[in-house]
Write a structure and sequence with these properties.
0% of the residues lie in helices and 70% in strands. It is mainly β. It has one domain: F0F1 ATP synthase delta/epsilon subunit, N-terminal (ATP Synthase, domain 1), CATH 2.60.15.
């Protein structure tokens, strides 16, 4: 199965980038899960946590506020006014 190429950026820096097998983010319409092969989408982020299942195992969590999520051709870009990695 293919992986997603993911970038999580805040207004002033890149927070995380790499390959992931799944992305879950909170939007104004509710939580959305993205897997490889997902249809293109553009969604407005709600304040909350972005959860990434890293390719090969493991996970990354980030807190993201005010921004958007874009999916196209297995590339996920999350742009937030403020974002930071969550420890643990």
């Amino acid at each position: 199965m293919a992986d997603l190429t993911v970038s999580v950026v805040s207004a002033d820096q890149e927070i995380w980038s790499g390959s992931a097998s799944m992305v879950v983010a909170r939007t104004t319409e509710g939580e959305i899960g993205i897997l490889p092969g997902h249809e293109p989408v553009l969604a407005i982020l709600a304040s909350g946590e972005v959860r990434l299942t890293v390719a090969g195992g493991g996970s990354v969590r980030a807190k993201a506020d005010d921004g958007f999520l874009s999916v196209e051709h297995d590339t996920v870009t999350i742009v937030a006014r403020s974002a930071e990695l969550v420890e643990g």
